[in-house]
Predict the 3D structure of the following.
Amino acid sequence: MAETASKMIDIGSKARDFSLPDPISGKNISLEEMRSEKATVIMFICNHCPFVKHVNEQLVKLAEEYIQKGFSFIAISSNDAENYPEDSFEKMKEYAENLGYPFPYLYDESQAIAMAYGAACTPDFFIYNNAMELIYRGQLDSSRPGNTIPVTGKDIRAVLDSVNDGQPIPDVQIPSIGCNIKWK
């Protein structure tokens, strides 16, 4: 597993629109229909990455908690499924159902959306305000496979709580670390 860090694109960058297939519903889901009037969390994840597996339980808890507060969550897999069959569209459906993802888990087969967002690793997190301007990019928290730090979602929780409370977004934003996106 090659450790790769987030690219940390510019705060204020506009979200790129997309419409991608959802293996659960079999329909395409667009950013426009999923965006929130509070903030929208876009996560680049995959099935096989040990970094994603390490945080999956917390991703579900975090999303369930903050969806109730009016936030939106969208997960996208952009990995090359031909060379990484565990990340196939069919396996995504199985994975999302088994984990009980409360958010859509969309398939970016062309990898165009990952490129447009500047996604570099799994997991890679981007949070956009109600005007779809980037307010956060980086880590869920400091926990990594093999370290003793508990998975809490602390960094993303701080951003979402700031938005919810009308407070400034934390200035310190630490890159996420994970497996590199498996480019074709």
